[in-house]
């Protein structure tokens, strides 16, 4: 079946920085482009990490302790700088959590949730940056029109994958919830249809109202000998 890929959703014009980019320049880029993080690259465009607003704030806080806690220069302590002077490479989170363009969008969404990140740099086989996909981009999966979901259930699941007729069952889709209603030939086809439908991009839930003409769920295939003959 066809699934939406990361490459279909990613932004290919990516704002990025080098490891040597100063803190101030990183902060300016985040503000100018209204983004919360960006990839950090080496000189060959390979993704080494990601630097976010929280990374910058955390590093700046570490370099600037609360008032009253600065070391006393007269007692041999080093004075803290009046402003942040670190680079993107010193503040970034590394290694970066990345994804390839041919990964499914659903797989990328699961990766984001598992790793607790808000964006994934998209890389080629050499780990070079080719795009970026964010949580906002992946929300598109759940905004897929009901009419398009129904079309995919009929064309991709019923016809192409299961080899059934387009009218084998009645398909209704409302707000991403798919209702399957009708009578299939065999009982074993019912869980297959439900599972394949639930895996389609944009499907929130499946409500099956299915019966079958033949209950083959208890049937076992005949045992075959080593020569391939039924026993």
UniProtKB/TrEMBL annotation:
Residues in BON domain copies: 146-214
- Please state every residue range assigned to the domain named CBS: 10-67, 92-148
Q: What name does the UniProt record give this protein?
A: CBS domain-containing protein
- List keywords of the entry alphabetically: CBS domain
Q: Does the keyword ATP-binding apply?
A: no
State the residue spans of region: Disordered: 59-78
UniProt xrefs under InterPro entries: BON_dom, CBS_dom, CBS_dom_sf, Diverse_CBS-Domain, UCP036990_CBS_BON
């Amino acid at each position: 079946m066809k699934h939406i890929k990361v490459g279909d959703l990613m932004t290919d014009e990516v704002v990025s920085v080098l490891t040597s980019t100063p803190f101030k320049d990183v902060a300016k880029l985040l503000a100018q482009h209204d983004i919360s993080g960006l990839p950090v690259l080496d000189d060959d465009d390979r993704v080494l990490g990601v630097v976010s607003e929280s990374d910058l704030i955390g590093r700046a806080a570490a370099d600037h302790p609360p008032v009253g806690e600065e070391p006393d220069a007269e007692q041999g302590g080093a004075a803290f700088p009046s402003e942040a002077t670190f680079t993107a490479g010193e503040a970034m989170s590394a290694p970066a959590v990345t994804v390839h363009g041919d990964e499914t969008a659903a797989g990328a969404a699961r990766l984001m949730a598992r790793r607790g990140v808000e964006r994934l740099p998209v890389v080629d086989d050499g780990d070079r940056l080719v795009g970026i996909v964010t949580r906002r981009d992946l929300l598109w999966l759940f905004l897929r029109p009901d009419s398009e979901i129904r079309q995919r259930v009929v064309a991709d699941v019923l016809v192409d994958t299961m080899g059934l007729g387009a009218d084998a069952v009645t398909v209704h889709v409302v707000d991403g919830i798919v209702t399957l209603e009708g009578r299939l030939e065999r009982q074993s086809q019912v869980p297959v249809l439900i599972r394949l439908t639930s895996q389609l991009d944009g499907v929130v839930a499946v409500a099956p109202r299915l019966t079958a003409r033949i209950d083959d769920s208890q049937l076992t295939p005949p045992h075959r000998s080593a020569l391939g003959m039924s026993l």
